[in-house]
Design goal:
alpha/beta; 325 residues; 4-stranded antiparallel β-sheet; manganese; mannonate dehydratase; iron; 9-stranded parallel β-sheet
Length: 325
C-alpha cells in the first residue's frame, strides 16, 4: 500500500515539490485538464500528461472521472449512447497506450451532492455536509452540468450500467486498463426523482457480479461514502470483506464522515464513524496492495488551498500503513 497525491486536475512544479516533500511518488488526476476531441481524450495528450508527471518525479497511477459530456447519454440511455460508448472505448485505448493503469468512473447522473459546504467541525474547521431533508434547496457544489430533466428509475440505471460494462470491459481488458467504480455520494436511493444505485456494499457486490469476473473491473473504494451508508463502520467492514478477498479494490479514498444517511458531515480522519487503524489493518489482511489517497479534507484556518489539511491526512495515512505492516 502507498499514499498518492490525488484529486488534482493539473500539476505544476510547486504542487509536485509538495508531493515529493511528503514522500509521495504517485499521483491521481480527477477529470484532468486535457483537450477533448469529439468526446474523447487522445493518446498524445494523455502520454504528454504522464510525461510531465515523470519529469517532476511522479508516476501517473490513476485518472478518475471522464467529463460528464463524454457519457451522459450512456448513463441516461439517451440517443447518443452508442456514439459515446465508441468514444469512451477510444479514450480507454488512449489511456492504456499511454501506460496509465486505472480509470476511475462514477455512474451518478445527479453527481456528488452537498447541502452545506462550511459546516463547523473540530476546532472550527469547515467541512461539507449532507441532509436529505434540505435537497430541495439545491446542490451547494457547483456541478458541471444540469440535473437530468427526466426521472430515471433504478432498474433503468442498472440496465445502463450493465450495458456500459458489456461494451467497455473487453476494450479495457485489451488495453490493460482497469475501470474502477466509485460508489454514489451521497448514498441515498434518489435525488430529484433520479435513482442512485451504488448505495450499499451489496450493490457494489452486484456490480462485481455484473462484471463477470473481468480483471478490468474494480472499485474505487471511497471509505467516506461507504461510511455514510446505513451501518457506518459496519458498512465499511462489510464492503472490504465482500470486495477485498476477491481483489476487486483497485484503489481507496481514505476519508470518513460522522453520521449516516439521511444526514452526515465529513470529518478529520479519526473523528468519524470508523477506526482508521482497524480499517487499514483489514485492508492489509484482505490483500489490498494498491494506492490510496486522502480525498476530501476539512478546510483549516488560513488554509485556502487545503495543503495543510492534506499534509495532516497524508502523514496520518503514512503512519497507519507503517503500523499495519
Amino acid at each position: 500500500m502507498r499514499v498518492i497525491l490525488g484529486q488534482i486536475s493539473r500539476l505544476d512544479e510547486g504542487l509536485a515539490a509538495y508531493a515529493r516533500q511528503l514522500g509521495i511518488t504517485g499521483v491521481q488526476f480527477n477529470t484532468p485538464d486535457l483537450p477533448t476531441a469529439g468526446g474523447r481524450w487522445r493518446y498524445e495528450d494523455v502520454a504528454a500528461l504522464r510525461g510531465r508527471c515523470a519529469a517532476m518525479g511522479l508516476r501517473l497511477e490513476v485518472i478518475e472521472n471522464l467529463p460528464y459530456g463524454f457519457y451522459d447519454d450512456v448513463m441516461l440511455g439517451g440517443p447518443r449512447r452508442d456514439e459515446q460508448l465508441a468514444a469512451i472505448a477510444d479514450t480507454i485505448r488512449a489511456i492504456g497506450r499511454a501506460g496509465v493503469p486505472i480509470l476511475g468512473y462514477n455512474f451518478m447522473p445527479t453527481f456528488v451532492w452537498r447541502t452545506d459546504l462550511a459546516a463547523p467541525s473540530r476546532g472550527g474547521a469547515e467541512v461539507t455536509a449532507f441532509d436529505l431533508a434540505q435537497v430541495e434547496a439545491g446542490n451547494r457544489i457547483e456541478v458541471p452540468h444540469a440535473s437530468p430533466s427526466e426521472q430515471l428509475s433504478a432498474e433503468a440505471l442498472w440496465a445502463n450500467h450493465d450495458r456500459f460494462l458489456a461494451e467497455l470491459l473487453p476494450v479495457a481488458e485489451e488495453a490493460g486498463v482497469r475501470l474502477a467504480l466509485h460508489p454514489d455520494d451521497p448514498p441515498v436511493a434518489a435525488i430529484g426523482g433520479n435513482a442512485r444505485i451504488f448505495t450499499s456494499p451489496e450493490a457494489l457486490a452486484r456490480a462485481d457480479a455484473a462484471s463477470g469476473g473481468s480483471p478490468a473491473w474494480g472499485v474505487d473504494l471511497c471509505l467516506g461514502t461507504v461510511s455514510a451508508m446505513p451501518g457506518g463502520a459496519a458498512a465499511v467492514e462489510r464492503a472490504i470483506d465482500l470486495l477485498g478477498p476477491r481483489g476487486r479494490i483497485a484503489y481507496v479514498h481514505f476519508r470518513d464522515v460522522r453520521g449516516t444517511v439521511p444526514r452526515f458531515e465529513e470529518a478529520f480522519i479519526g473523528d468519524g464513524n470508523f477506526d482508521p487503524a482497524a480499517v487499514m489493518r483489514q485492508l492489509r489482511r484482505v490483500g489490498f496492495d494498491g494506492p490510496l489517497l486522502d480525498d476530501h479534507v476539512p478546510r483549516m484556518i488560513g488554509d485556502s488551498g487545503y495543503l495543510q489539511a492534506r499534509a495532516h491526512a497524508i502523514g496520518y495515512l503514512q503512519a497507519l500503513i507503517a503500523a499495519a505492516a
